[in-house]
């Protein structure tokens, strides 16, 4: 099986810390497995134009492979040269997936493009007006390297100060769970998550490029909270939902200033649950420690306003507070942070802590979570 | 190493609490009570008479008053409605100060000071260590106002001020019968005097050069704030204490209380600094401020890149990349009258940096959330038990 090969390769690369890899190697049993093959991916579009790659039921668990465009499929020029220059073994399953995708998968006919996504996944019984709960059971690496880059003019905060395009490979030490930023000096704890999870927009809206996030389809959240143990609630716009996923990040600071993050190819384990007749105006998230609300807008000021309004509405409803108590509680307890400072569609998220509520509500995950600070 | 330090410090703290060490008052060299002579409204200038003169290295106990920006009349009404006697310590002083100002109109933040530090001269850096903070009342005030450009200012029907109870022994804000907020006091305002020819201090705004309304919860106990000294003596002021607050401070107020601060002042001679910076046991903090958040974001990114270049010897690209991968841009003040981001670079990423930090005590409550710190061993164990019931694999 793909995973077995990948894992053993990774163990070799990492120099193997036995106790750790033994646990990391343990496969999680799931109902389904969706690979990132040339005919199970989308070249960066959320749409109903592609045939569902797999049909699952509400309550099913699934393992999904993704291939990162930035680490293979999407690199300009000769991909073989890219792999060779960066010392990336060609026999990694994700590299083989990527080369085949590059060769065989057709771009969207209307020219829409964005990050490479795996999907669509069809969830039986999901209909417009429902919401789709996605539980992130685990996130694992498919290769022990990540790519970060930046380029002039790319809508990030210093887009005009970047003199030329820049791209850098960083090695990951999976046994120790760190990215080696600068050898023997700077190491970053890994906290992998999928930058993109979303559904097809309404049928009359056409396809959405996998670039800016929207409240309608979700997509490019770049939200570091969406790691193992988190839950994402998405609106359902079409029958079957048509879920797509990709754009793996090894870790990220809130802000994602260079535009891409530390891009990696990830495998995720999920559970999907359809909530009938629960329409959602905006996606929201939950972690073991926080309720998370987002504001998406080209202006950060407006993004903060949208996120604030959601927190106040949530607290008014959850705790039966009046507007002033709910706003005061938001002000005194809720951290606002920049998720992605990138045009178009910048995003801010607000973290309402759970530890302030005396009545503890049940949550499906109580395990360790990666570092936030 | 840093992780085990967290565990140890929690253990130490638990022991200290049991044997009652925490009740002993923190030592200080000078005391600055809040009186009509030591409390100023709005700001400080190079011509303000010092309230106390100290030497570098000394610790000052500073009383600060509840800074609700209400005038005397409204302030009295809020206390009365909240069932609070106006004779309560610190509130009595607040009333005296408010009596000296016009009855109508909004008032500025009440600041205690200025502290004159003898060695401080323009071109030096003043380090202010937050040694300890004590909440001085059993209630705090939060206001929702209809101006000042906070996110929901335009949809707020009317200004409202409310009183919330505090249980100081249990270190909690008793928000209502269902909600309790962990106490984490911090000073919303810490600043030095601008240079004589550099315009006015604030009021109620943050500044890159003199600090002021920094409003960052991470600047609680254990933080060091570094100010560029601009006038002889530096002339430091503090106020706008909060019993609890969060990044964003979205309705323009935290839970405002009178705080007694124990601050140590250290002058770093000949160390010029272009803008205010800070440090905690866990993070380096840089700031960015402007009225439009997109501009704040850009200024914060520039400041961060400068900091990382200097701190880690990185070139522009690597500094920018590290900022992307490891640094959080928190929105500490979300209101269009001076927005502020606090930019948090974690210290643990610099694995060879063995610089000792002066503070090893309690961290903000959010750092205690279960699993909310990095532990590589925990990363890989025990998650299996949290998965749903075992299921069969069918595959594609």
Detailed description of the structure:
The complex is a heterodimer of chains A (373) and B (396). Chain A is of the alpha+beta class. Chain A contains 6 helices and 21 strands. In chain A, the strands form 4 sheets. Chain A has a 9-stranded mixed beta sheet with strand order 1-5-17-7-15-18-19-21-20. In chain A, strands 2, 4, 6, 12, 14 and 16 form a 6-stranded mixed beta sheet that branches. In chain A, strands 8-9-10-11 form a 4-stranded antiparallel beta sheet, with no helix packed on it. The longest helix of chain A is centred in the last third of the chain and has 20 residues, at 300-319. Chain B has 396 residues and is of the alpha+beta class. Chain B is 18% helix and 29% strand. Chain B has helices spanning 2-18, 72-81, 91-99, 293-312, 316-326, 376-380, and strands spanning 30-32, 39-41, 52-54, 59-63, 110-117, 125-135, 139-144, 160-167, 172-174, 180-182, 186-192, 206-207, 211-213, 224-228, 236-244, 255-256, 259-268, 277-279, 283-290, 328-333, 339-346. A 9-stranded mixed beta sheet of chain B has the order 1-4-17-6-14-18-19-21-20. In chain B, a hairpin with a 3-residue loop joins strand 12 (206-207) and strand 13 (211-213). In chain B, helix 4 (293-312) packs across helix 5 (316-326). Residues 1-21 and 368-396 of chain B have low confidence and may be disordered. Chains A and B meet through helix 2, strand 1, strand 10, strand 11 and helix 5 of A and strand 8, strand 10, helix 4, helix 5 and strand 20 of B.
Topology (SSEs and partners):
The complex is a heterodimer of chains A (373) and B (396).
Chain A: H1 2-14, H2 18-25, E1 32-34, E2 41-42, E3 45-46, E4 54-57, E5 61-65, H3 79-85, H4 93-104, E6 117-124, E7 131-141, E8 145-150, E9 166-173, E10 178-182, E11 186-189, E12 193-199, E13 208-209, E14 218-220, E15 231-235, E16 243-249, E17 266-275, E18 284-286, E19 290-297, H5 300-319, H6 323-333, E20 335-340, E21 346-353
Parallel strand pairs in A: 1-5, 4-6
Antiparallel strand pairs in A: 2-6, 3-13, 5-17, 6-16, 7-15, 7-17, 8-9, 9-10, 10-11, 12-14, 12-16, 15-18, 18-19, 19-21, 20-21
Chain B: H1 2-18, E1 30-32, E2 39-41, E3 52-54, E4 59-63, H2 72-81, H3 91-99, E5 110-117, E6 125-135, E7 139-144, E8 160-167, E9 172-174, E10 180-182, E11 186-192, E12 206-207, E13 211-213, E14 224-228, E15 236-244, E16 255-256, E17 259-268, E18 277-279, E19 283-290, H4 293-312, H5 316-326, E20 328-333, E21 339-346, H6 376-380
Parallel strand pairs in B: 1-4, 3-5
Antiparallel strand pairs in B: 2-5, 4-17, 5-15, 6-14, 6-17, 7-8, 8-9, 9-10, 11-13, 11-15, 12-13, 14-18, 15-16, 18-19, 19-21, 20-21
